[in-house]
Amino acid sequence: MDAPRTTDPAATEAADSKPKFIRSRGLRFPYDTRIINRKRRALLHSDTYELKESEAVLSQIRPDDRVIELGAGMGYMSTLMARHLKVRDIHAFEANPAMIPYIRAVHAFNGVDTVRVHNALLGETAGEVTFYVRGDFVASSMADNLGDKHGGVIARETVPVRPVAEAFTEIRPTALVCDIEGAEQHLIPLMDLSMLRVAILELHPQVFGQDGTRRVFDAMAAAGLTYFPRASQGKVVTFRRGW
């Protein structure tokens, strides 16, 4: 007869306290239900989370690029670039202060130390804005008129705005990765795009319509960046300097 099993309370507590992860593309993401809801969990498990943007980034970003990422989200793209592409110089901007500890945790758990995380927005001039944190952290934004959607507003935070010209002069990026929920129509024309080799954007025409889309394309064309269809899918568009 087998000896009866004994339970070591200390061992049980240690096992229960171990962080749980969702794995995606070989990367590890702490399972925080405020950030990873059922839909995101399924997408992460199937390696289809931000699929179009991921494919563009993996095919177009180079290890020697200096990347500026606007809208860092849960740290997915910056971790993907650092781990899979070995990019050594990434500046990730995220407005939502509730996401910053999670992004840093994602980087730490994946051994990423080449990303500088900025809790700030870029704009024309320096200042501050009110940011509305929602129960679903990823759905937080500067909009205060969404009612109880996405878990409702659970906090109001003051977020600094940095002049975009200052940030570009300081970082001198060669690559831009941008997903900022429609603000790109105003921000892209303010940028000095002349230093970029490539730009990968998720457009939001449902927010700004045809006029906003045209403003983005016109700004890219004026800077010598051409729409690159082979690395574009739907609302994710890529612009390159030279083919």
From TrEMBL:
Q: Name one GO molecular function term.
A: methyltransferase activity
Q: Does DNA repair appear among the keywords? A: no
Q: Which residues form a coiled coil?
A: none
An example Gene Ontology biological process: methylation
Per UniProt, which keywords does this protein have? Methyltransferase, Transferase
Tagged with keyword Mitochondrion: no
Q: What is this protein called?
A: FkbM family methyltransferase
Origin species, per record, is Pseudodonghicola flavimaris
